[in-house]
Design a protein that fits this description.
Blueprint lengths: L1 H41 L2 E12 L8 E11 L5 E4 L4 E6 L5 E6 L5 E2 L2 E2 L4 H4 L1 E4 L4 E10 L5 E8 L12 E9 L4 H4 L1
Parallel strand pairs: 5-10
Antiparallel strand pairs: 1-2, 2-9, 3-8, 4-5, 6-7, 10-11
Length: 186
């Protein structure tokens, strides 16, 4: 009788080991899928030729510094990609490593009387890029901070239920230095 109990316990332990391995494999596969999908996303678009300019804002302006930022986004995938080239908000953050980041994105769609307001294709400045082509992105913004070196992050989400079928994701470029910082100090 005791031998039967030991065999049952051994089978139970063996089944538990198999279940544990299955769960571990599923989570490993999920982690790998997330990892590779983020790599694929980053491999579709490349940011290059960044420029960050600054000048002192006019006397009485709320923020002391006026900035102009521009960069190009190149399609490095094997398929055509539709990009939003109009960025309407640029936000400054310090990340966990205390690096300065500038996030460029679009405004979300609003509502009036609970009715969604959808922008036109022209308002979004959608550009379809073939492989090897690039789009020009620019933004003007004001800040109370003097920014000498930042990380540019183009971060576009889908706020319109895939209606326009444009590329969504994030691409970045580190160590963008302020061009002609002396213009900001005058």
């Amino acid at each position: 009788m005791q031998g039967g109990t030991e065999q049952a316990q051994a089978r139970s332990a063996s089944a538990a080991s198999v279940i544990f391995l299955e769960v571990k494999l599923k989570y490993s596969a999920l982690i790998l899928l997330c990892f590779f999908s983020s790599i694929m996303c980053a491999d579709e678009i490349e940011m290059f030729s960044p420029l960050l300019l600054c000048k002192k804002a006019e006397t009485g302006h709320r923020y002391p510094y006026e900035y102009f930022a521009r960069f190009y986004l190149k399609n490095i995938s094997n398929t055509n990609i539709k990009l939003v080239s109009k960025v309407e908000k640029s936000m400054y953050f310090k990340n966990q490593q205390s690096e300065s980041e500038l996030h460029f994105s679009t405004l979300e769609g609003g509502t009036i009387n609970n009715i969604p307001i959808i922008p036109s294709v022209v308002d979004l400045k959608l550009v379809e890029l073939k492989t090897g082509e690039a789009a020009y992105i620019e933004a003007k913004f004001w800040s109370e901070r003097f920014l000498e070196k930042v990380k540019f992050i183009y971060n576009i989400g889908d706020n319109f239920d895939r209606r326009f079928n444009y590329w969504t994701g994030s691409v970045s470029l580190s160590n963008v230095k302020l061009t002609r910082p002396e213009h900001c100090k005058k």
